[in-house]
Description:
By secondary structure, this protein is an all-alpha fold. It folds into 3 domains: 1-105, no CATH class; 169-269, CATH 1.25.40.10; 275-401, Serine Threonine Protein Phosphatase 5, Tetratricopeptide repeat. 67% of the residues lie in helices and 3% in strands. It contains 21 helices and 3 strands. Strands 1-2-3 form a 3-stranded antiparallel β-sheet, with no helix packed on it. Helix 2 (23-35) packs parallel to helix 4 (56-69) and helix 7 packs antiparallel against helix 8.
Amino acid sequence: MRLALSFFAAGLLLAPAAQAQTEAAVLQQAEQLIQQKKYESAYRVLDKFDPKNARTAVLLKKEDVVLNYYLLSVNHEIFGLQDLKPTQRVEELRGKPGRYGSVRLPLRPLLDSLKRLRPTDYGLDLGLGHYYYAVQQCGCGRQGLSEDELLQRAEQYFTTAHAHQREDFESHFALGFISMRRKQMAEGAAELERSLALNPNYPNAHYNLAYAYSALGRPADALPHARRAGALYQNPEYKADAVSMTATLEKQLKGGAAPNLLGTREAEAAANAKDQAAYDALKAQVAAAVAAKAPNAKALTLQLFQLNPANDAVYSDLMDIYQEHEQPAAMAAFFQEQLPAAPQTPAVQGLLHFYVACLDMQLQRPAEAYPHFRQADMLLRKVSSPDNPAFAIIKKGLNESRPKK
C-alpha cells in the first residue's frame, strides 16, 4: 500500500560538531554493510548518526539505500528494508509478503529544504533527480505529477548537477532513458556511454545501449553490449531478453533482418494507453480542482474514486493530490463519507478504514483513528495474506492510537 504519512517520524538531532570527525567513517561503514546486503543495518547506522537529516552526504546515502534496496514502498515515503542473506536478491523479494524494518524518509521535502538552505550544494540536485526518476519508474508517490512531468524534473536536476561536476552512473543512465523515451537515440547513447564509463558492470546500461545502437542502425556497436548485458544479468527474464537480442543481432550481421525492437516495445507499452490516458485526464482535473479549492473538487474526486474503489492505486493518487495541496482533512472527510456508500466488500471497506485511520493519525486524532485501524485489520485479513506488509502499518497504528487506561 502507498500513502503519505507523517506520524511515524522520530529522532533527536545530534550536535553537528560532535559528529564532524566521524561522518566519513559512518559513510564507509554503511557502504560496507550495503556490500554485505545488510540494507536495514546500513540505514540504521546512517539514521543513528543523523536522525534529523541535516547532513547532505548522509541523507544522500540514505536515499541510495531506500531507493535501490527497498522491498516495500508506501508512497515512496515509508520503506521496508531487510538485511538479506548472501544468496538473496532484492529483485526477487520486492513486493512480496515478509517481515520488514519500516523507515520513513520523505525525500522530496527533505531535499527541497536542504537545497533552500544550501543553494550551491549541487549534490542535492543529484539527489532530487534520483528521487523524481525513481518515482516515475515505480509509479508511486507521484504527488499529482504526470510521468512526463516527473521525468522533466529529473532531467532538470540531473543536468544542473552534471554542470557542476556532480554525477554518477545512475544519473547518466536516467538521462539516457529519458532521451530514448523521446526517441532521441543518439543523445541517449551518449549518456549511456558515460554511465558505463562510470560503472562498466551496470547491465541495464549495456542493454539499453545495445537497444539504442540497434535503433540507430549500428548492429556491430550494439552486439558487444547485448552480450555483456546477458553475462551480467542475474534476473532470468532480463538475461533471456539480452540473450535473445544478442542472437538477433548476430543474425543481422550475417545478413538477416534487423530486429524490430522499437515496434515491439511500443506495441507492448501502448496496450492500455487509451484507458490510462482517460484516467490521467480525470486525475489532472481532480488535481486542478483541489488546488483551486473549486466547488466541483469533491464531485471529480468521487468520479475518480468510483472508477475502481478496490484498487489501492486510486487511493494513492488521491492521497498524492490532497497531500500536495495540504488538504488531508478534506481527504479524510471524503473517505469517511464513502464508508456507507461504497461497495460493502472487505477490500473496499478495508481500504477506506485504513486510509481514514492513517489520515486521522496525521491530523493528530488518535482516538478517531483507533476504531478505523481495528476495522481495517479485521476486513483486510479476509482478502489479504497474513504477511501483507499493510498489517505492520496497522499494528503500529493500533499501538500509537490505543486508548490509555
